[in-house]
Design a protein that fits this description.
It contains 5 helices and no strands. By secondary structure, it is mainly alpha-helical. The protein has a domain of 91 residues. α2 packs across α5. The longest helix is centred in the last third of the chain and has 40 residues. It is globular, with a radius of gyration of 25 Å.
Length: 135
Amino acid sequence: MKKIGSLLIILVLFSCTENSIIEKPKDLIPKDTMVLLLTDLFIAKSAFTEKNLNNNRKINYMPLVYNKYKIDSARFISSNLFYTSKFEEYELIYKEVNEKLYSKKALLEQNIKRDTKDEIIEDEEDFVDDRNIKN
């Protein structure tokens, strides 16, 4: 009985991976563009809850990303569905997206540290030593 159950599980797993590949859409977004697009979509999605320069929250930046890449949400959905049906390929895409997000984060952190140092230096230059003031 255990052997039959194990055999059924193996058959189901193999049949799911081979037969579930979706037909390639005519307007498929290329992999390199998909990596950039997904990177920007993750950033746009996470910015939804953050305040922008005008102190506004809950702004949907997704349409701006679609406009940047000159696509619509339907094209993204069909391309994303195709890539998700090819698990190994989609995993590679997500690894690249993850790397890009981490490098953007590191660059942003460097800029924040640099700006903070610049502010500290400016504050020190503006500081007046009381001993140098004569009454």
